[in-house]
Specification:
single chain, alpha/beta, 3 domains, five-stranded parallel sheet, elongated
C-alpha cells in the first residue's frame, strides 16, 4: 500500500507512469492484495491486462486508453499482470518488450494520466529480469525487489473461515466437519495461506457426503426466557436459518484449554446429524397454559393454545418456520410478561412437570407428543424430555425436544454454553460419535 501511495505521489509531481514487479510465493495473496487496492483507495481503479495487451503494443495502448476514456475516469489507474511468466517462459524478450511499451506510454498520452503497472510473479529471477528491463528508464521503476509475504500465519484460520462463509452464502466450514483446530493444524503445516486453503478444499470432499447421512430425528432445544435474556439465547442461534445452533458462537464461548480438551469433533457431528436447533420461547406464551402443573388434566384454553401456535418454537417444531414471514423475537414490556416472569421463577425447579405440560400442549395443537420418551439411534438409546411427532410428511418425522428450564438468573452466556454442550454430548453418545463415560 505504501509503495502505491509513493508511486501516486511521484506521478503527481513529475507525471508519467510507474512500474512495480511484485514477487510472492504461490498462494501468498498477491492477486487478492492487488484487487483489494481499490477497496482501500477508492479513488483508484484496478483492472487485469489480457494476454493480448501484454504481447502487443497496440493492444496495450487500447486497453489502457479505454480505461481512461470511461465516463468517470479514476484518479489513479492500476493495471495488473497476473503471473504471466508461466505462459511465456521460452520468450525471454517479454520483460524487455513490455517495459519498452510502458516507456512509450510514459512519453505519450499517459504522461498526464497517472497509471501504475503491477506485474505479479512467483519467480524472483523473473522479477529481476523485469526490474533490469527498466535500466534505460529507471524513473518508472517503483522498487526492484518488493515481496508480498501475505497475512501472518496466526490469522489464516479466521481468514479461511470468513472467506468460505462469504463465498458459500454464510455456511460455516464446521458444517462440513472442518473445525477451527483443524484450520490451526492445517495452517501450521502449510507454507502459505494459499496452500492452507488448498488443503482445506481437499478435506471438504470426503466430509461433504456425511451431510447426506440424515438422522430420523431432529433435536430442538427449547429455552423459556424473560425480558432481555431473549437476546442472550439469540446470540447462540441463527434465527434467519431456522434457529440452527450457531456453532461459531458456541465454539468461541470456550477458552483455549477447552478447545484442546473437549471432544468438539464429536459434538459437531451430533449437531449436524441431528440438525440441532436452539429456540427461545417467551415465558408469557407458556404461563396461561401451565397453571396447576401437578394436575395432568388441567384445562387448556383454546385462545391460549392459538397464541402458542404463533410462537417461533411451535413453527420450528412443526416444520413450517419461515424467517422471512416471522417477526423478530424480542422482549416486550407488559403486565402479562411481568406476571409470567414472576410465575416462571416458581417452576424452574419442576422441569419434569413443565415438560409433561408442554407435551400435552403440543398434542392439543395437533402434534402428538410424549413426555420422557426413550429413543434409539445407531444402536444407542437415550431419553428425551419430549418426543414430538410431525404430521403432514415433515422431515425428519420426529422431533426430540430438550427443555432448558433454568432460573432466569442462570441465563448467562456461560450457562447457555454449558447447557448446549451437555445436550450435544448426550446426542453425540446417542449417535455413536462419542463413547459413554
Amino acid at each position: 500500500m505504501h509503495l502505491v501511495k509513493q508511486a501516486a505521489a511521484g506521478m503527481a509531481v513529475s507525471g508519467g507512469i510507474r512500474f512495480l514487479p511484485i514477487y510472492g510465493q504461490s498462494g501468498s495473496g498477491k492477486t487478492s492484495a492487488a484487487q483489494e487496492l481499490s477497496t482501500h483507495l477508492p479513488e483508484c481503479e484496478v483492472f487485469t491486462l489480457t494476454r493480448e495487451a501484454i504481447e502487443s503494443q497496440e493492444s496495450l495502448n487500447a486497453a489502457v486508453h479505454a480505461q481512461w476514456k470511461r465516463r468517470l475516469p479514476p484518479k489513479l489507474l492500476i493495471a495488473v499482470v497476473d503471473q504471466y511468466e508461466e505462459n511465456v517462459a521460452r520468450r525471454t524478450d517479454v520483460p524487455t518488450r513490455f517495459v519498452e511499451a510502458l516507456s512509450l506510454l510514459d512519453r505519450g498520452e499517459l504522461r498526464t494520466n497517472p497509471t501504475l503497472f503491477l506485474w505479479l510473479t512467483t519467480s524472483k529471477e523473473f522479477q529481476g529480469d523485469l526490474a533490469e528491463a527498466t535500466s534505460r528508464n529507471e524513473r518508472i521503476l517503483v522498487a526492484r525487489s518488493f515481496e508480498i509475504a501475505g497475512p501472518v500465519q496466526a490469522a489464516w484460520p479466521q481468514i479461511i473461515e470468513e472467506t468460505f462463509e462469504f463465498h458459500n452464502h454464510g455456511q460455516m466450514l464446521a458444517d462440513f466437519d472442518v473445525l477451527r483446530d483443524d484450520l490451526d493444524e492445517i495452517s501450521y503445516a502449510s507454507g502459505t495461506i494459499g496452500q492452507a486453503i488448498e488443503e482445506v478444499g481437499r478435506r471438504l470432499g470426503p466430509h461433504a457426503s456425511r451431510l447426506q447421512d440424515i438422522s430420523d430425528y431432529q433435536v430442538v432445544m427449547a429455552w423459556p426466557v424473560t425480558g432481555s435474556r431473549i437476546d442472550r439465547i439469540l446470540a447462540f442461534t441463527l434465527p434467519g436459518d431456522g434457529y440452527k445452533l450457531d456453532w461459531n458462537a458456541f465454539y468461541r464461548a470456550h477458552d483455549q484449554n477447552a478447545h484442546v480438551s473437549l471432544p468438539f469433533h464429536a459434538l459437531n457431528r451430533a449437531r449436524l446429524y441431528f440438525d440441532v436447533r436452539l429456540v427461545p420461547i417467551a415465558v408469557a406464551d407458556l404461563h396461561a397454559l401451565s397453571h396447576d402443573l401437578e394436575n395432568i388434566g388441567a384445562p387448556l384454553a383454546p385462545s391460549y393454545l392459538e397464541r402458542f401456535k404463533k410462537s417461533h418454537l411451535y413453527s420450528v417444531v412443526e416444520g413450517s418456520y419461515d424467517p422471512a414471514a416471522a417477526s423478530r423475537l424480542r422482549a416486550r414490556e407488559s403486565k402479562r410478561a411481568d406476571d409470567a416472569a414472576t410465575w416462571y421463577e416458581t417452576v424452574t425447579d419442576q422441569p419434569v412437570l413443565l415438560g409433561r405440560r408442554m407435551a400435552r400442549i403440543f398434542s392439543n395443537v395437533g402434534l402428538p407428543a410424549k413426555h420422557e420418551a426413550s429413543v434409539t439411534a445407531k444402536n444407542h438409546t437415550a431419553r428425551t424430555d419430549i418426543l414430538v411427532q410431525r404430521v403432514g410428511g415433515g422431515s425428519p418425522a420426529k422431533v426430540l425436544l430438550e427443555l432448558k428450564a433454568f432460573s432466569t438468573k442462570n441465563t448467562m452466556p456461560a450457562a447457555i454454553r454449558d447447557a448446549v454442550r451437555g445436550t450435544l454430548r448426550k446426542y453425540a453418545q446417542l449417535g455413536g460419535f462419542l463413547e459413554r463415560q
